[in-house]
Amino acid sequence: MPDLPSPKDATESALHAECWDAVLSYADLCTAGSSAARELAEEAFALGVREIRAAEAGASRGRRTPRLPAIPLMLTAVRTTAASWEADGLGHRLDPDLRLWLNSDKAARYTGPPLRRPIALRGLRDLQEPDAALLWLTEVEALPSTVVARRLGLDPALVSEELDQVRSLFRDRCHRNHLDTPLDEECRKYARLLDAVTRSAPAAETPEDLTRHLATCVDCAEAAGCLRLNGGELPAALAGGVIGWGGLAYLERRRRAAEARLGTRRSEPVSPGYGEPAENATRARIVRGSLLAAAVALSGLALVVSMMPFGGSADDTARGDVDALPVADSGLPLPAAGPSSSAPVSPSTGGPASASPSASAPGTPSATGTETRADRKNPGPQGASTATADESGETGDTDETAESGTAGPDRSAAPLCRVRYDLRDQWQDGFQAVVTVTTVRALDTWQVSWSFRDGQRVTRMWDANVVRKGPRVVATAADYNRSVAAGGTLTFGFIGTWQGRNGAPHGFTLNGHDCVIT
């Protein structure tokens, strides 16, 4: 693969086999282009290798210091390298939001006093490295238990039990670190209450005063995410606390990558035995092909039949008159009013327009009470709105369906795309969402746009590029996901801000075509 750096020895080979995909994924979030992403990933990977070697050298001399597992260590190396770029004048190659973050107090927490660093980072570092790796690979990388067991040399049957024990250990470390953090009296009071609420199984209802406190206190809110083991908050707490900027976006990317790997495995044919599945699959393909061909043939026949002229005189057929009757003309006079006739309405009186001999065309009945050419509408699909000509030559729109009292067929074209909007997470003033679009046609590139109802703003996006921000959001394809097969899907996610209300967006389009929201 061209994006992989050349390993220098067996240690680096093992590390880039395990970590490179994660490093490049996070580097892509941090940069403004694919070439910058690769350079940042390569520098960060080299930095991570040096840190691992230094830790191993210290351990061999009896100075064992706690360190993160390989993948989160490499991801923190990406963040450190990005900070170096910003300091060295290369910040223009980084994501603009990352640059703001790097120059804020949030980034300073990762290099400041140890007791002020994020609780999840301190808790993960306090675990034994194999335990921390088990927790990270399962919760953040979203790997199946069989894959985790193979990587860590564990018994697959015991992975679930060991994971429960590691979660409890991590919770205890985070609770201790929370109490060790310099807290004011109010936070210390709520720290004990938070421990009691999150320790109970099932989790007790959070008191209202604690909820208000968590909405305003960063340290206690971080601790809550680490202490709630059964509320689904642990993956986000780990990713956000250890990585920092872009943690939620990275978490979503890794989950989608894991789902794609599992989907690929499930799509492989499973052989019940004796070599029959391949033969059955071939037979099934033949049957499906035959049914499809038959359906196409019947559709073509129906189209031909619908276009054939019915009834009318030979003169009308030869003349090709656009006023030919849309139904069989038996030559009998038609009633002036009834369920199957549509008399034009006089614009002046609001009642039926009277037929006059002067309005009669040659070859059509003109007696009073019979339908003349002026009384007929231009033929068209039944139920469609067509134009009628009055004596002055002006035209007006008339709806045959409304006049005849019968419902016409649905003429709306089949949608070219379907959209699913998933609100994955929401907090006090922000949210995370994922957009999945299914396209009927094959695409060489794509552009998805939508509008927010409540003034939400997109602040960060992955797997797509934000062209214009504001009430109307336009997302364009990234360099690596421009092509989409017919019937395929494209997916991207983003972080946004909201105030007051966070309603679902509307008006989704794909390359200018309206999409159906599912």
Automatic annotation (TrEMBL):
The chain crosses the membrane at residues 234-251, 291-310. This is CBM2 domain-containing protein. Residues 410-518 form the CBM2 domain. Residues 391-402 have a biased composition (Acidic residues). Keywords: Carbohydrate metabolism, Membrane, Polysaccharide degradation, Signal, Transmembrane, Transmembrane helix. It comes from Streptomyces thermogriseus. InterPro entries: CBD2, CBM2/CBM3_carb-bd_dom_sf, CBM2_carb-bd_dom_sf. Residues 321-413 are annotated as: Disordered. Residues 330-370 have a biased composition (Low complexity). It holds the Pfam family CBM_2.
